[in-house]
Amino acid sequence: MIMDVSKLGLFRILSIQNLEHILQHGIYSKNQCPTNVQYITIGSKEIIGQRDRMMVKCFPNTVVNDYVPFYFSVRTPMLYNIITGHGVPKLPQEDIVYLCYKLVDLATKDFIWCYTDGNAAKAITKYFIKLESIESNIDWRSIQSTDFRDNNADGDEDRVRKKHAEFLVHGHVPINLLKCIVVLNREKEAEVIAMLAKSKMNIKVAINPNNQYYFK
Fold it and tell me: What does pTM read for this prediction?
């Protein structure tokens, strides 16, 4: 079966406290972000440090933190770590929102981009620049699976890395291509709608579509 690339989504999670600045300025990579912006960090400091050093293999002289990262999956192990405080700052699940883009809007000549077959901080991860082979280059079973335990039913010890396959955009991603913001509940929906009104933006806000984006 040939994958319909036009239907593939890209997802970025962040603290809702960072959303208002992003609505006004777009999304910056860590290394391009203005120094006067106080973002709430939701990732592991150790892994962020690794991404400062990890070269992007298809674009020499750049590192992972030169890029804005997106996932192909939702309800990831990273989100689980955030809400449990496992190796990262603990945050309530309702304080995490999703920015949802379409792959075909970012995989264009307007951007320098690539994608990986797993967590970009891992040395074994491979990088790709051709969409034609994305169906075979990424383990979509891992992307779609909700069983990412170390002893998962498939016996796949590499599942967590593969579920964190990434799409990377160099430097900056504008907000005008954003398709939807996903939140956990109506309280956060109202908060995001108020931010959008303040920024004079008309972007769809959805509450946990099909109960697939957040943990119960």
Answer: 0.94
